[in-house]
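Hi R.,

As promised on Friday, here is the backbone we talked about, encoded as structure tokens. Could you run it through your design pipeline when you get a chance and send me back a sequence?
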């Protein structure tokens, strides 16, 4: 595939995603400016990230540190905002903090401590979102709803970190609208104590409309932009 053909593919995907977002915003009575599109580039090469940047995408998400760190380094000249959206082991905190501006998957106190320690060491401030488990499945990551207030307080009180808000993945096979409505309630509860924590990271390629209707501020979209996942980076 030529670079020109790939650029056209990605441009077409971006146009479709933007049209869907615009329609969902109209239905929800919201403005497009309220939403940040995070292009999830996992399994796709840095060349695709460059094409996305050329097309005006400024936020990129990755869920594996090894892949993310290499791409962030290769694309350091683009001035992108990098989002780490996958489950994160504490022993990867130093690496992730070196490039990630936002970590969407903070779900336990040990991780808060590790991220804060490495952010201070690196002289950086990293925005953290508390990931909420809406289905009670620990295998998919996330803190139980009742654990969220303490985690939010911990992030807000840790040097090197800034509490951005909350994140969730809709339960498999469940009603995404119901799940995102619950996330919105949790977000509102967090903001009573931390008014600036106004990020709601929710919605992917298949459930953007429901997320937008329930107050999402950040959409994590990969497949609709870049196509079906490949098993390995090309």
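Update: got your reply. Pasting your designed sequence below so it's all in one thread:
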């Amino acid at each position: 595939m030529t670079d020109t053909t790939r650029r056209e593919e990605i441009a077409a995907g971006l146009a479709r995603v933007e049209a869907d977002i615009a329609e969902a915003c109209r239905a929800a009575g919201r403005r497009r400016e309220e939403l940040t599109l995070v292009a999830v580039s996992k399994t796709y090469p840095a060349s695709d990230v460059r094409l996305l940047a050329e097309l005006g995408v400024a936020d990129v998400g990755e869920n594996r540190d090894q892949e993310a760190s290499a791409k962030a380094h290769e694309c350091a000249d683009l001035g992108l905002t990098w989002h780490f959206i996958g489950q994160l082991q504490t022993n990867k905190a130093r690496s992730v903090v070196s490039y990630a501006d936002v970590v969407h998957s903070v779900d336990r106190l040990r991780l808060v401590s590790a991220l804060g320690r490495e952010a201070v060491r690196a002289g950086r401030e990293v925005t953290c979102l508390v990931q909420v488990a809406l289905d009670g499945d620990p295998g998919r990551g996330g803190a139980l709803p009742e654990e969220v207030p303490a985690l939010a307080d911990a992030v807000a009180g840790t040097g090197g970190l800034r509490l951005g808000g909350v994140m969730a993945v809709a339960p498999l096979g469940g009603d995404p609208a119901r799940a995102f409505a619950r996330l919105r309630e949790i977000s509102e509860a967090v903001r009573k104590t931390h008014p600036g924590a106004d990020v709601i990271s929710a919605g992917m390629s298949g459930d953007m409309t429901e997320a937008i209707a329930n107050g999402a501020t950040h959409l994590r979209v990969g497949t609709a932009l870049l196509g079906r996942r490949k098993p390995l980076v090309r």
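One thing I noticed while checking it: Strands lie at 36-40, 59-62, 81-84, 102-106, 126-131, 161-167, 199-201, 218-221.

Thanks again,
M.
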